[in-house]
Each structure stands twice: as structure tokens, then as C-alpha cells.
UniProtKB/TrEMBL annotation:
Pfam families linked to this entry: NAD_binding_7
UniProt source species: Secundilactobacillus hailunensis
Record bears the keyword Chaperone: no
Name this polypeptide is given: precorrin-2 dehydrogenase
Catalytic activity: precorrin-2 + NAD(+) = sirohydrochlorin + NADH + 2 H(+)
Length: 154
């Protein structure tokens, strides 16, 4: 993605598929649920840290029909053949993120710092999630030193 356009998306009425049920999926699902997305996890197994009462779990291997009605697809498997198959099954109307290969993604996740009235994001354009997390933590530390970040403007 050479020319990204940053946005904040309301996912509360969107159908989001997470392909895979491991530790990467855990992080993605938690963030999606916090955003009130309607999450479907497609994976033969699911990590115990994923709240099965909060998601729809299709306990199976991925099939193209699984994502036909999805608005967003996040691919979190370690199987590159499955990941390629998921990307091939998407349409140009769907947002797709392949956590294993940014070249097969049309959006990236961002690190975020949030207060009740402020949202700041950090992106390395998919190059280094660990670097984005480091910058996010430094930014959060700096902002917490300022009363206005916590809603106490001076």
C-alpha cells in the first residue's frame, strides 16, 4: 500500500471475519469486540482467551463461502496456502488484512492511545508492529504527564 488514507471506522454494524483462532486472533478479536463489531471466527480450534459467547465461532477449515457476506476480513493463520485462498476469495468491496503478509492487505491495524475525548494512532504502514507499539507506549507516557490528556485542561 503506497498511498494510505487514514480513517477511523465505526464497526458496530459491520460483519468482521477473523480467519484463525490462535494468539494473533486473540488480540484482533479483543480489539474488534471493543469496537462493537459483529465478529465471526473461522478456525478448527479457538484459543481459550477468545470469549466464545461474544463471537460466532465456525469450528471448521476456511471455505470461500464463509466470507461472502463479510465487510472486513482479518487473516491470522500461519498457513500461507490458506491465507492466499482467503485473499483470493475476497471482493473489491471488502477490507482485508493479512497479518502475515502486508502486500496482501488493503488496510493495516494501528497502535492507538485513547482517552475519553482523544484518539491518537501510530502506524508504521505495516512494516513493524513492535515499533508502533514502542512509539505508542512512549506517546502514552508523555501524554499522561499532561493533565489535559486526562480531561483536566489548564
Amino acid at each position: 500500500m503506497e498511498h494510505p488514507y487514514p480513517v477511523v471506522i465505526d464497526l458496530s454494524k459491520k460483519q468482521v471475519a477473523v480467519i484463525g483462532g490462535g494468539h494473533v486472533a486473540v488480540r484482533k478479536v479483543k480489539g474488534l469486540l471493543a469496537a462493537h463489531a459483529n465478529v465471526t471466527v473461522i478456525s478448527p480450534q479457538i484459543d481459550a482467551a477468545i470469549d466464545q459467547n461474544a463471537v460466532t465461532w465456525k469450528a471448521k477449515k476456511f471455505e470461500p463461502a464463509d466470507i461472502k457476506e463479510m465487510d472486513m476480513i482479518i487473516i491470522c493463520t500461519s498457513d500461507s496456502a490458506v491465507n492466499r485462498m482467503v485473499v483470493a476469495a475476497t471482493t473489491h468491496f471488502q477490507l482485508v488484512n493479512d497479518a502475515s503478509d502486508k502486500s496482501r492487505s488493503n488496510f493495516y491495524n494501528v497502535a492507538r492511545v485513547e482517552s475519553p475525548d482523544l484518539l491518537l494512532t501510530v502506524s508504521t504502514k505495516g512494516a513493524s508492529p513492535s515499533k508502533a507499539k514502542l512509539i505508542k507506549n512512549k506517546l502514552k507516557e508523555w501524554l499522561n504527564q499532561n493533565d489535559w490528556f486526562n480531561g483536566k485542561e489548564s
